[in-house]
UniProtKB/TrEMBL annotation:
PANTHER family: GLUTATHIONE S-TRANSFERASE GSTA, GLUTATHIONE S-TRANSFERASE-RELATED
InterPro entries per the UniProt record, alphabetical: Glutathione-S-Trfase_C-like, Glutathione-S-Trfase_C_sf, Glutathione_S-Trfase_N, Thioredoxin-like_sf
Keywords: Transferase
Protein name per Swiss-Prot or TrEMBL: Glutathione S-transferase family protein
Any single Pfam family the record assigns to this protein: GST_C_2
Origin species: Pseudoroseicyclus tamaricis
GO molecular function (one): transferase activity
Residue stretches making up the GST N-terminal domain: 2-83
Entry-linked SUPFAM superfamilies: GST C-terminal domain-like, Thioredoxin-like
Domain spans labelled GST C-terminal: 87-208
UniProt xrefs under Gene3D superfamilies: 1.20.1050.10, Glutaredoxin
Transmembrane spans: none
């Protein structure tokens, strides 16, 4: 049985959220690069870990885990807590927004970055939907997060804010248009855990408030 954690990752991908959580916990783990340039995530070996062929996978003593939100919850429940525990009053709202980030916000980003996979929406419709999602997060999610210490929601939200700024559409407004979200990005950026991840993946000194294209030591983001 595996006794260590192994994060299968690519630089500046969805695995970034998991790596941030691991570093915030101070938890021992190893990384294993998934070479996207070689489409390694579609290879037979990787598909035995995640039949969806998506990044990330976390190998654990309980077996391989995939789906970012599931991995994040497992980490919090088996290590230093980064999420309200069962029975806590804050858990219900936190779960709601964790899965909103996974099922709604992240999906909206995918439609924006991979329009060929979402042919039912025009670019204008996708941009309008993304703006509406950010407005919702600004009004409802950000105040909830600001009342708590940085945790899983921050690990999931901050990379998404990074990608929105790094790969903007025509006329896309700056993050300063959503000041509550910008403040959350700044507090996440100030954590030592973020500095370690940014160094490892070549994300630059301000990965969430002034992102630069990553310059990783290994692999490629796209």
């Amino acid at each position: 049985m595996m006794t260590e954690l192994v994060l299968h990752y690519a630089p500046d991908n969805a695995s970034l959220s998991v790596r941030l959580a691991l570093e915030m916990q101070g938890r021992p783990y190893r990384t294993r690069l998934v070479d996207r340039r070689a489409q390694a995530q579609r290879g037979a070996e990787y598909l035995t870990l995640n039949p969806m062929g998506l990044i990330p996978v976390l190998e654990t003593p309980s077996g391989p885990l995939f789906e970012t939100a599931a991995i994040l919850l497992w980490l919090s429940e088996t290590g230093a807590p980064l999420f309200p525990p069962p029975g806590a009053a804050a858990r219900g709202p936190a779960l709601t927004w964790l899965f909103w980030l996974s099922n709604t916000m992240h999906t909206g980003l995918r439609a924006r970055f991979y329009p060929g996979q979402f042919p039912f929406a025009s670019p204008e419709e996708t941009e309008a939907r993304m703006t509406a999602l950010l407005d919702m997060a600004e009004a409802h999610l950000a105040p909830l997060m600001a009342a708590e210490a940085p945790g899983l929601l921050d690990c999931y939200l901050a990379p998404q804010l990074r990608w929105l700024q790094l790969y903007p559409g025509p006329g896309w407004p700056p993050l300063s248009g959503w000041p509550n979200l910008e403040a959350l990005a700044a507090r996440m950026e100030a954590l030592p855990a973020t500095a370690r991840v940014a160094e490892a993946e070549g994300l630059g000194p301000r990965p969430f408030t002034a992102p630069q294209p990553c310059r990783p030591k290994e692999g490629a983001a796209l």
